Amino acid sequence: MDKSIHHSPLAFRATGLALKQRIFSRFTFKKPRIVPAALAVLVQSLSAVAVFLSVLAVGLFATMHFSTFSLVLMQALFAMGLCVLAGMASWWRWIHFGFPLGLWGMSMLHMPNEVYLVGFLISLSLYWTTFRSQVPFYPSRPIVWEKVSELIPSDKAIHMIDIGSGIGDLSMHIAKTKPYSQIEGIEIAPLPWLISLVRAYLKNSTAIFKFGDYHQLVFSRYDVVFAYLSPAAMPALWQKAQQEMCAGSLLISYEFDIPGIKPSFCIESIGKIPKIYVWKM
Ligand SMILES: C[S@@+](CC[C@H](N)C(=O)[O-])C[C@H]1O[C@@H](n2cnc3c(N)ncnc32)[C@H](O)[C@@H]1O
Fold it and tell me: Quick one: which atom of ligand 1 is closest to the CA of 254?
């Protein structure tokens, strides 16, 4: 080994820099990775504490009566402010503002408890692990099904999967337009999956719907993987696709691209319908 490299000013600076980084990494705190839903619960809880402390503080100096509505409004405003401080996405401000007011409004209507239970059960079976995956259910439109179908060859049978198949429209459309191909959908939320299963049966569709998590699939089995997920899911999806998909297979994503990874080609947006991104592996 050439010892002069070790003693050169450059090597000296590099060693100093590495040492500095090591020292700093010990004393700097990493930003905790907390999912937005958990952060939202934290924001509302801290706002409740802030309301309580504010009422106590005001009580020290004056005798003041707060109406329920004014307390609720304070909660909404504190939550909105904390949401901004926590750096949550802008739409969360309105959710934080509307949530306490919505709760208050609902309590004014004196609805029976069963209504809340049914609402909770429907939301749970529809959105299931969305709080963790950050991929909620919202269906794509017929124009998207047609554009995706055009990407699939008609002259040979292929194996395709819609990861997060919702209520199954895209898969059933492709199964109808490409009858020789094998089309599957996998869905993690029980209600959309059940609806897709019943609809496929009633429509006599050849599309197969599985209940489960696409992370557990092996992508090498598929010639085409279609995804309509969310920006949060895309980096991990790319990692999985890169590791498992075979050369020549297609990864198609509607609306969401993969940061830093140039698609092979795109289908440009049509009116308000966003782009479709295609990566040839
Ligand atoms: C935006 S919807 C798309 C529905 C359908 N692909 C369409 O085009 O109409 C995304 C779906 O992915 C599902 N999903 C989210 N994470 C999933 C996972 N890890 N495995 C399977 N499905 C998932 C959600 O429950 C949701 O129904």
Answer: 8
Tokens standing for residue 257: 């691209």
Name the closest-CA residue to atom 22, ligand 1. 164
Mind listing the pLDDT tens digit for each residue in 207-228? 999 999 999 999 999 999 999 9
List residues near ligand 1 (CB under 6 A).
133, 135, 137-140, 162-166, 169-170, 186-189, 192, 213-215, 228-229
Place of tokens 């092979």: 264
Fold of 142-280: Rossmann fold (3.40.50)
Instruction: Quote the tokens at residue 181.
Output: 């191909």
Compute the distance from residue 117 Cα to the ligand 1 centre, in Å.
Answer: 24
- Concatenated DSSP letters for 213-275? -GGGS-GGG-SEEEE---GGGHHHHHHHHHHHSPTT-EEEEES---TT---SEEE--BTTB--
Bridging pattern class, strands 276-280 and 265-267: antiparallel
Query: What is the structure's pLDDT at 132?
Result: 78
Q: Is 197 helix (H, G, I), strand (E, B) or coil?
A: helix
pLDDT digits (tens, 9 = 90+) for 106-132: 889 988 889 999 999 998 988 888 877
Using CB atoms within 10 A of its CB, is residue 160 exposed (0-12), middle (13-18) or buried (19+)? buried
| Cα 138 to middle of ligand 1, angstroms | 8
Work out the pLDDT band at 59, boundaries 50, 70, 90: confident
Is residue 177 within 8 A of residue 195, CB to CB? The reply is: no
Quote the ligand 1 centre to 130 CA distance (angstroms): 9
What number is the average pLDDT over the span 246-273?
92
Residue extents of the structural domains in the chain: 1-30, 36-107, 142-280
How far apart are the CA of 168 and the centre of ligand 1, in A?
Answer: 10
Enumerate residues 6+ apart whose C-beta is below 8 A from 182.
157, 158, 159, 160, 206, 208
